[in-house]
Amino acid sequence: TRLAALLFALSLPAFAQSPQAAQPISQRFAADPSPHYFKTKDGGMFYLYATDDASNSGKYWDSTTWRLYTSRDMKTWQDAGIPLAVTVFKWARPDAKAWAPEAAYRNGKYYFYAPVGGDRIGVAVSDRPDGGFVDARKDALVDRARDVNAGDEPIDPAVFIDKDGQAYMYFGTRVPKVVKLKRDMISLDGPIRIVGIEGLPASDSKKKYGEAPFMHEHNGVYYFTFSSGWPGQILYATGKSPMGPFTYGGVVLDYLNISTNHQAIVEHGGKSWLFYHDNLLPGGSGWRRAIAIAPLEYGPDGAIRQVNVVPA
Ligand code: FUB
């Protein structure tokens, strides 16, 4: 109702957007958005890779396939089906689940990164963004049992290619990790390090790193965003380098009516959008999530303006 929207608006911090209704991009359950603008032979398009909550049991995140959506205008999204399944990774255990995916483009190839089970990250490669992916290595890119400093739960990979061509991969639950990637995009380049985040408010013990690391650059500033936990706020911190350290900046998205949150930011044509997931569809739950999009805005000082969606 109008009164509810007004009361919600009055409860917002001053430096925040006015509330907007959350719109799922699809009627199919999906989560952990990884949006990209890729130029292909058919022209440029947005590609959104996701965890496929519609094919899980409804009792856990136990899907074994990822899902792809495409859009030319950010408004209408087409379901482009299954770009790949965990079966692409022959080394995966039979019970391995398909969790939060990521994609990147370099030198005419599309790279797909994802947790394959909770202890390994796989990388696949294709000549096109919507399918044809094959295992790029024949073993895991990160493996908790093999890689010193991989942490307890190496999941949620996010890849960032800086202007100088250096690629970085962020990942991890509870402790954020970063590692450089070689130009081949399928090998680690140097040690796995902890991402340093300074200035998290001591007055709120829930403001800490949980999962869903993501890196983007805007006007020369490196923004590290992440979910604070379960449930989580989406928080951000800024730094002068993709390796950090980062200084806490504030809340991007407040707690939603869901046990997890997982964000990504895409910029194209001078506009920025925040992708996240929430419990937005009939029959939804913590296992059955829906992806939504909101415009992302910055203040004159580069601070991210808190996104405010009317809760589901
Ligand atoms: O989709 C399974 C897990 O839920 C992801 O890996 C986390 O980021 C959380 O969204």
UniProtKB/TrEMBL annotation:
Key word Signal present: yes
Which family is this sequence assigned to?
A: Belongs to the glycosyl hydrolase 43 family.
Pfam families named among the record's database cross-references: Glyco_hydro_43 (PF04616)
- Protein name per Swiss-Prot or TrEMBL: Family 43 glycosylhydrolase
Check the UniProt entry and state the signal peptide residues, or none. 1-16
Instruction: Cite the entry's keywords alphabetically.
Output: Carbohydrate metabolism, Glycosidase, Hydrolase, Polysaccharide degradation, Signal, Xylan degradation
Q: Which organism is it from?
A: Telluria antibiotica
Question: What CDD domains does the entry give?
Answer: GH43_AXH_like
Q: Does the keyword Hydrolase apply?
A: yes
Task: Give TM regions.
Answer: none
Which InterPro entries does the entry link to? Answer: Glyco_hydro_43, Glyco_hydro_beta-prop_sf, Glycosyl_Hydrlase_43_Enz
